[in-house]
Amino acid sequence: MFFNSLQYLFFLPLVFLVYWTVNKRSLKLQNLLLLAASYYFYACWDWRFLFLLVFSTGLDYFTGLQMYNAENQSKKKFWFWLSIIINLGFLGVFKYYNFFAESCAELLNGIGFKSSFWTLQVILPVGISFYTFHGLSYVIDIYKDRIKPEKNIIDYSLFVSYFPLLVAGPIERATHLLPQIKKKRNFDYNKAMDGFYQILWGLFKKIVIADSCATYANDIFDNYESMNSFSLMLGAVYFAFQIYGDFSGYSDIALGTSKLFGIDLLRNFNFPYFSRDIAEFWRRWHISLSSWFRDYLYIPLGGSKGGMWTKIRNTFIIFLVSGFWHGANWTFLIWGFLNALYFLPLLITQKNRDNIEIVAKGKLLPSFRDFVSILLTFTLTTFAWIFFRAKSVSQAFVYIKNIFTFNFDGGIQYLSNDRYTVELLLLLLFFMVMEWFSREKEHPIFGRAKTIKAFFIILMIIVFGSYSEASEFIYFQF
To answer: What are the pLDDT digits (tens) for 62-90?
Structure first.
């Protein structure tokens, strides 16, 4: 079930109405309804993998209690590593086994040994990277004595499986979400309306911006060998907006949906394309994942303590693991490596925390220096996105090589199935203007004239949206 599908259009209002009806009875019924809705939501994709979700939830719930009640440190450590190994084992088998098997076979064949490895013929369970990280953070926090285990199995299961964040985040923490689950929630009209407006903006990002850009980006990347330099550059820019509109659009819908039920989720995006350096970009892009790696990998490795070599090593580990988290392909590892390289000069010069505040705060326009910095950061990020989008490393390198042939013959090469021409560029301009003037808020449909803004966005979705089919969100594959 997709957020942009007709099925969800019926599902969400029904759950909303029943939820606030049972709210008057008991918190237990309220949470039980959300859990049942979450399992149904997940089962609509593939009911067979619901058993994997339930097993993972039960494993972490049980091991969390065992760690807390362990008689000594060795038993506590046993239950901790049991949970970690099984969770990462499932993730490794479903997401990475084929990658390692095929890579080993290619390596052995390359040095003269004929070999082949058995590969799994199974699809990747949607959301496995996200709900696995929910469970891992919970188990690690108990092991480190940061939190106590949750004894109510319904409440813990809802924490892991809450449908707005289940398949593509944000990656929540038990310290943030569980207290809200355990607290009685009363209907707040203003909060619900803000959630509705945020859902609208998320749908605009996905249906109008992301899906429109995908029309061009997909065709340009599929036909990159016959595209001139200008079209290839435009294809990379289109993909940059596609992935941002797609993923941040999903996050907006998730956060808005959760507000309808009186629950606040962690913010996942904070206008990242207005960043003035790559460090600021990563504080504003996929915030829940970046902070997860910071707290559960970077800091345990030593963080920024120690010498410069330790800092550099930890930085490259974080970005390479982040790349690998996104997918079992060498293209993602190179994407992570590139971002680590971008980050390196800031780390060495200790300027990685120079840009903490939002750009041009309280001002209408940025300074010339800020504008150039934003443009440079966007260019570097878009260049790295080429590896993220390419199907293989060789395709990415040929794509980049063709850009730098500086062949501009033919101008913009519009493809046969284009939906928009100049209109799409104007839509992107409108989108960025809306984001710029809302950069100190959570989303553009906020503050004054909310109803007028909402009506206008609905009109834009109707006129410019893509409705041929409910296209899948990009991050479902991760």
So the answer is: 999 999 999 899 999 999 999 999 999 98
Work out the average pLDDT over 453-471.
Answer: 82
Token representation of residue 448? 């004054």
- Catalytic pick from 134, 176, 286, 326? 326
Of 278, 308, 280, 314, the residue nearest 294 (C-alpha):
314
Is 326 tagged catalytic? yes
Q: Specify whether the CB–CB gap between 6 and 467 falls below 8 A.
A: no
Q: What are phi and psi of 120, to 5 degrees?
A: -80, 130
Report which secondary-structure segment, H or E, holds 434: helix 422-436
d(CA 315, CA 72): 35
Q: Kindly report the pTM of this predicted structure.
A: 0.92
Residue by residue, DSSP assigns 206-220 as IIIIIHHHHHHHHHH
Question: Could you give the CA distance from residue 163 to residue 169 in angstroms, rounded to a whole number?
Answer: 10
**Token pair in block for residue 330:** 């060498």
Q: Indicate the SS3 state at residue 141.
A: helix
Q: Model confidence over 425-456: pLDDT tens digits?
A: 899 999 999 999 999 998 988 777 888 999 99
